[in-house]
Design goal:
Layout: E1 27-30, H1 38-48, E2 61-67, H2 75-82, E3 86-97, H3 107-116, E4 120-126, E5 131-137
Parallel strand pairs: 1-2, 2-3
Antiparallel strand pairs: 3-5, 4-5
Helix pairs in contact: 2-3
């Protein structure tokens, strides 16, 4: 199998397993558009055993899945907009196109956006052929 491809055999959730999601977690999805990875979305919903909430939901969530592309605007604004429904111990998976894909965002812009929003960028994982996920959390001192 080529490096970077997902196999369903023996790895039923592909890239979604890298997101540390568990059954019963409440996940809100923001920034959906036709370019998102549908297979990854299905894997996430299989893992949490439920549907993801949309951006209009007003409910405490464990994780926000934020799809963001270069032309979506300032990363800091997107991250701040993702915070209102996020539980104190929750985190954001900032989903961005990989290098060479339409909408790619420079890593320095991601780091600056997280810092400007008062958040910390911790982990980056490749979750599909076109998307990478960046874990963004509140700094430890600001969690309750």
């Amino acid at each position: 199998m080529a490096k970077g491809t997902n196999s369903r055999a023996g790895d039923s959730h592909g890239g979604a397993e890298l997101l540390s999601l568990e059954t019963g977690m409440v996940v809100q999805e923001i920034g959906w558009d036709e370019d998102v990875d549908s297979d990854l979305r299905d894997e996430i919903m299989d893992l949490i055993d439920g549907e993801m909430l949309d951006e209009d939901a007003i409910e405490a969530v464990d994780v926000v899945l934020l799809w963001w592309r270069d032309d979506d605007g300032d990363v800091a604004d997107g991250l701040v907009d993702a915070l209102p429904d996020l539980s104190n111990d929750g985190w954001i998976w900032l989903m961005t196109p990989k290098v060479g894909r339409d909408g790619f965002i420079e890593p320095s812009d991601l780091a600056e956006g997280a810092a400007t929003a008062g958040l910390s960028l911790t982990t980056t994982v490749n979750v599909s052929a076109d998307w990478q996920a960046h874990r963004v959390v509140r700094p430890k001192g600001s969690r309750r």
